[in-house]
Each structure stands twice: as C-alpha cells, then as structure tokens.
Amino acid sequence: MQIFDYEDIQLIPNKCVVRSRKEVDTSIKFGPRTFKIPVVPANMQTIIDEPLAIWLAEHDYFYVMHRFTPETRADFVADMHKRGLFASISVGVKPGEFGFIQQLEEQKLVPEYITIDIAHGHSQVVIDMIHHIKLHLPDTFVIAGNVGTPEGVRELENAGADATKVGIGPGKVCITKLKTGFGTGGWQLAALRWCAKAASKPVIADGGIRNNGDIAKSVRFGASMCMIGSLFAGHVETPGKKVEVDGELFQEYYGSASQYQKNSHHNVEGKKILLPVKGKIADTLTEMQEDLQSSVSYAGGRDLSALRKVDYVIVKNSIFNGDQY
Ligand SMILES: NC(=O)C1=CN([C@@H]2O[C@H](COP(=O)(O)OP(=O)(O)OC[C@H]3O[C@@H](n4cnc5c(N)ncnc54)[C@H](OP(=O)(O)O)[C@@H]3O)[C@@H](O)[C@H]2O)C=CC1
Ligand SMILES: Nc1nc2c(ncn2[C@@H]2O[C@H](COP(=O)(O)O)[C@@H](O)[C@H]2O)c(=O)[nH]1
C-alpha cells in the first residue's frame, strides 16, 4: 500500500469543459437527501448545537448533532420534525443507548440519520447497535464508525450500516496516536483510499482536513462526505466558548475524548486548543463550495463524479512547495 496524506498529493488537471465555475454542481446525494456540498461539521460539542443544526438543515447542508447532552435528543428530533426539517443525531454504545433507541420507537420519533459515534468503531458492541437500530428504526440511515481498515468497513456494512466513517486519530485535537500508538494520523488519505476500495456503501472521511482542497482530495480517494472539525471551529455560530487573549478573540475547540468533554481524567484521548474567531459559517461554507467548483473545473467535469477518476502525483509535502505555510 502507498502511504500518503493530504499534504503529499496534488491532483492533475484535465481540460476544462465549463465556461464558468458557477456551472459546476457540487451536490451530493447522501442517504435519503441531497446536500449542497459533501461536507459535514463534526458532531462535537464545540462545533454544533441546536441553532446551528437548524440553520444547516434549512440551508441544505448535512449536519450530525453531537451526543453529549443525551437527555435532549428525543426533543431535538421532535423539534426538527415540527419545523419540517430532517433529524440527524448521534448515539454511543453504553447500555442506556440501546434503551434510547427503543424510546424513540415508542414515541414514534424516527430520525432520518443516526451516527454511532465511537472512537474504536470496529467492535462487537457497534455491530450490536447497528442491528438494534435496524430492528427498531428500520427507516433510519445508519452511519457507523470510526474505523481505519477495510475489515472494519466490511464488517459494519455487513451488519447493516448504510455508511461508515473512516479516521482513527487524524483530528486536530486528537492525541490517540500519542496515547495509544494507533491510528491513521499522518496517512489518513491513504487509509481513506484503502477503506473506500473495500466499501460498497458511502464512506465519510473524518478528521485531518486542513485546507479546502482536501475536500476534493477526499472525494478523489472515495469519500462521499467529509467530516470537519477544526476548519469550522471559531465561527460566530459555533458554540465553543469565546475567550479573549491580549485583546484578541479566540474560541475553544476541544476533543470529545478530552478531559473538558468527559469531566474525567480517565482514557483521555483529546486536547483543547484556541482558534481565532473568524466570522460567519455561511461564508466559510460558500468558500468551500466555490473552491470545490473550481476543483471540479480543474478535473475537467461538471460535477463531483469528475474528481473520482482524476490522476494525481504523490510528492512528500508538495502542497507547501517547500514553504512551511
Ligand atoms: N475519531 C477518532 O479518532 C476518535 C474519536 N473520539 C471521539 O471521542 C468521543 C468518545 O469516544 P468513546 O470513548 O469511544 O466513547 P464512550 O466514552 O461513549 O465509550 C464507548 C464505549 O466503548 C468502550 N470501549 C472499549 N474500547 C474502547 C476504546 N479503545 N476506545 C473507546 N471506548 C472503548 C468504552 O468503555 P471504557 O470507557 O470503559 O473503556 C465505552 O463503554 C466520541 O465522540 C469519539 O468520536 C475519541 C477518540 C478517537
Ligand atoms: N482522537 C480523538 N479524535 C477526536 C476527538 N474528538 C473528536 N475527534 C475526531 O476529530 C474529528 C475532527 O477532526 P479535525 O481534524 O477536522 O479537527 C472529529 O470528527 C472526530 O472524529 C478526541 O477527543 N480524540
């Protein structure tokens, strides 16, 4: 297997077939719905909350609500449906989560999407949860993860997952690789390619995306959707706490397995960083879409399918042309 990451790849252009980048269609069908771009903000407590979820759903962006205020999730589903919007929530795998799925069934609250959000998703308890959701909420689109191997993808798909999420430890606030020695950090794009080749259903690339061009690269190597945390942290609408340092405004971004999320020092695999506050999320999403339209035009196509077969070169750290940043 060839090993590379986002910064080691450059895609090779084909003849342009559009007169304007505005002609390019960046939409993606994912599960029962079609979204404007193949991007979803990470289901982390410093990245998404209910107002942002509503805004994203209203504007045809995919979202996944986090699972860290578990008692609010049933009301969240009801509220989204009352507004005529799709509901997309996260669950864990502890015993109470199995009961929560049954509670949703009893209350006739059927989310359109459920993400099983676990650090080490290639596990029997995740397979059990997939079976459980499919038994009680058969119409829900189930995303399961995270995994970092083709075996993980295949097992979760065979258990009934409708999509899998790939990425063990490439995240900006991740310390899994330091604490455990395991992960896809530093070779996430190659791991994505490895996993996507084995997949027969959609794959989400999760973690390690640092530049808008990495979205095009993810699509090239098999992603239907990109989950992104750090690029979204620090917006007006993202819920991380705003803090002032030497007169400059920053926002907290912390890992879901950090002590700040867990309120515990056990099995910590995440850290907290401060990122400069950088304006409205709508502008960032628009920029991502425009950059992706440009990517497709370089690929010589009119929609995302053009990216999937484009040629590429691997040159270590080529993206910065030898510069640091
Ligand atoms: N994408 C990534 O690389 C990573 C993501 N995260 C994020 O952190 C959050 C917390 O994840 P997680 O700790 O799985 O969730 P939970 O704290 O809900 O734990 C999941 C369950 O699995 C058990 N478990 C067994 N082995 C592992 C293992 N290697 N890692 C984690 N749990 C294990 C846990 O028991 P016990 O705690 O007793 O062992 C617990 O019962 C999630 O949002 C996840 O996405 C965390 C790390 C890596
Ligand atoms: N190892 C850990 N990974 C984490 C933690 N909290 C979240 N995550 C993962 O990171 C991505 C976001 O990555 P980014 O590079 O875009 O910032 C997120 O979707 C999770 O999969 C954690 O505490 N530890």
TrEMBL record:
NADP listed as a keyword: yes
A single Gene Ontology CC term: GMP reductase complex
Enzyme Commission number(s): 1.7.1.7
Binding-site positions, NADP(+): 203-226
GO BP, one annotated term: purine nucleotide metabolic process
SMART domains reported for this sequence: IMPDH
Gene Ontology MF terms: GMP reductase activity
Active site: 174 (thioimidate intermediate)
Family annotation (Gene3D superfamilies): Aldolase class I (3.20.20.70)
Domain IMP dehydrogenase/GMP reductase: start-end pairs: 5-310
SUPFAM superfamilies associated with the record: Inosine monophosphate dehydrogenase (IMPDH) (SSF51412)
Catalytic reaction annotation: IMP + NH4(+) + NADP(+) = GMP + NADPH + 2 H(+)
Keywords tagged on the record: NADP, Oxidoreductase
CDD domains recorded: IMPDH
PANTHER family named in the record: GMP REDUCTASE
Protein name as annotated: GMP reductase
Organism name: Lacticaseibacillus sharpeae JCM 1186 = DSM 20505
